[in-house]
Amino acid sequence: MRKQKHDVCDFSALPTEQDNPETGYLDRIPPAQVVQKINAENYNAARAVDRAAPEIERAASLCAKSYKAGGRIIFIGAGTSGRLGVMEAAECPPTFGINASRVIGIMAGGKNAVFKAKEGAEDDIKAGRTDILSVAKKGDCVIGIAASGVTLYALSALSSARKLGCGTVFITCNPLVAEFCADVMVIAETGPEALSGSTRMKAGTATKMILNAITTCAMVQNGKVYKNFMVDVQPVSRKLMARARSLITKIGGVSYKDSADLFKKSGYSVKIAIIMARRRVDAETARVLLSEAEGFLRRVIE
């Protein structure tokens, strides 16, 4: 990779800022063709993520190792990148049954900037350092996100996190970023946007795909998934309650009616209820068995 100095950055030279010859006439074509052009570019996002698969796996393993050792996963970024990190952090607890304190999203400009852009926040080096130091500690895994690769807020946060002894990951769509700003560099070379410079589009799509893969793979490695089922799902809505009972029915081999009683006796833990059904034990015994298996359901029931 070629190094790129951030303090004298030529923003017009960034890959994500280039004109896209495939979409040069959006204002002259029918709406149906506009949609078609945008969708065609989204296929390129998926291909870029596929090419970055080895680095995504390394990032996931780094997160998994940190989480298993008691560390936290922290996302930090500005603009669209920051919002995607905040969204990923918000969705992990109900999906994988983890405490919200174990996965954190930090947005340049603070919480209000999630809903309303705060001008200049992405260039605030001091804030990047201050924000990460107020949260991160040694052993955490910090994931900096910057589609352009030159967001000073995210880069400053990563530099500070590395000095703390955190594992670090950098997600970007710029193949020209400076080398070694993180332990793992995940680069999805998505190229020019359908709407020039609007990285909420193709770059944002690729970033979301990468985040999905990292967190899901990391949680698989920590026993939060059985087959392809969310067996640590939290029943925080009617839909999720129904999903939990369906999992108990399907994996536990009991009727949907009986799943309600098992779920209640288990303390509303899908895994515990399944173990109670499959091993024919009470909730306390099921918890012991699951603990001895380090949370991996497969080790208990197969």
Outline the secondary-structure elements.
Layout lengths: L30 H21 L1 H16 L4 E5 L1 H18 L6 E5 L17 H9 L7 E5 L6 H13 L2 E6 L11 E4 L14 H19 L17 H15 L3 H10 L4 H10 L3 H10 L4 H5 L1
Parallel strand pairs: 1-2, 1-3, 3-4, 4-5
How would you explain this protein's 3D organization?
- By secondary structure, this protein is α/β, with parallel strands linked by helices.
- It folds into two domains: 11-220, Rossmann fold; 238-301, Helicase, Ruva Protein, domain 3 (Orthogonal Bundle), CATH 1.10.8.
- Helix content is 48%, strand content 8%.
- It has helices at 31-51, 53-68, 79-96, 125-133, 152-164, 202-220, 238-252, 256-265, 270-279, 283-292, 297-301, and strands spanning 73-77, 103-107, 141-145, 167-172, 184-187.
- A five-stranded parallel beta sheet has the order 2-1-3-4-5, with helices on both faces.
Order of helices and strands: HHEHEHEHEEHHHHHH
Question: What overall geometry do the principal axes of the alpha carbons give?
Answer: globular
Q: Helical segment tally?
A: 11
CATH architecture of the largest domain: 3-Layer(aba) Sandwich
Count of the domains: 2
Report the strand count.
Answer: 5
Helix content: 40-55%
Q: Calculate Rg over CA atoms.
A: 22 Å
Biggest β-sheet description? 5 strands, parallel
Percent of residues in β-strands: 5-15%
Summarize it.
The chain folds into 2 domains: 11-220, 3-Layer(aba) Sandwich (Rossmann fold); 238-301, Helicase, Ruva Protein, domain 3.
